[in-house]
Amino acid sequence: MFRPVPLRRTLTALLLSCALLAGATACGDSQDTGGGSAASASAAADPSGAGPSPSAEKQRLAKTRFVANAGLAAGATYQWIVKPYRAGTFKKGAEGRRLALVKAGLAGGFAYNRLRAAAENAKGDPLLSKAVAPLTAGIESLKGLGTKLRKGEAGEGDVGAFESVIDSIKNAGKDAGAEVKDKVPSTSQLTG
Predict the structure, then answer these.
(1) What's residue 52's pLDDT?
(2) Against a cut of 0.90, is the pTM above it?
(3) 47, 61, 108, 173: least buried by Cβ within 10 Å?
(4) Cα–Cα–Cα angle for 189, 179, 186, nearest 5°?
(5) CB-count burial class (<10 Å; 0-12, 13-18, 19+) for 116
(6) How far apart are CA 109 and CA 97, in angstroms?
């Protein structure tokens, strides 16, 4: 006897299959000989057989990694620190305060970690390195704010410090040709 499968279950299975397929193809082996990688494409275009120099490849990846890390930091800061703070969710007696504070604390630690990684990535590109170097002190000043947020001790100045550092990083990236766009990380990424 035929039983119809609920549409939700079918869509969930389809989405999971697509995610697994995309993940499997994106996480290919570095020894890929399929000819589809960027390195093999550039080697095929270069008759001498020499691909891009290691320093050029490192420089290109530095900007990409900088944009990814800074985007995640900006997205986490806006989604779980700035937005709830402006909505009044951190105030005593507010509905959902405890969960919002825990998420803000995690987001603060995550943003600090990603900003440090972005500053490290910037060192691989000369222009980006010059633009980001003055901001490292600002990034280090955020070190303990995640804990302060989680405990509910953060105020307007603390939230403003996160916003200021994120805006400075975004502007430095834009000036160096590496525009940063907010990318909100998942909750599982925050808990690492």
Answers:
(1) 58
(2) no
(3) 47
(4) 15
(5) middle
(6) 18
User: What single-letter DSSP state applies at residue 79?
Assistant: I
Structure tokens that stand for 122 in this block: 């910037």
* Residue count (the chain): 192
What's at 39, amino acid-wise? Answer: A
Rounded CA gap, 58 and 134, in Å? Answer: 22
The two tokens of residue 68 are 């990814």
pLDDT digits (tens, 9 = 90+) for 98-128: 999 999 999 999 999 999 999 999 999 999 9
Amino acid 150: pLDDT: 85
Distances (CA, A) of 144 to 25, 77, 89, 103, 138: 39, 14, 21, 15, 12
Beta-carbon contacts of residue 90 (< 8 Å; ≥ 6 apart)? 84, 97, 100, 101, 104, 152, 154
Of the candidates 171, 150, 152, 169, the one whose C-alpha atom is nearest the C-alpha of residue 161 is: 169
Interior angle at CA 172, CA 167 and CA 175, nearest 5: 125
Tokens 């000819």 -> residue:
35
Q: Report whether 119 contacts 135 (CB < 8 A).
A: yes
- Mean model confidence pLDDT for the chain: 79
Question: Would you list the DSSP string of 121-183?
Answer: HHTTSHHHHHHHGGGHHHHHTTTTHHHHHHTT---HHHHHHHHHHHHHHHHHHHHTT------
- Number of other residues whose CB lies within 10 A of the CB of residue 142: 23
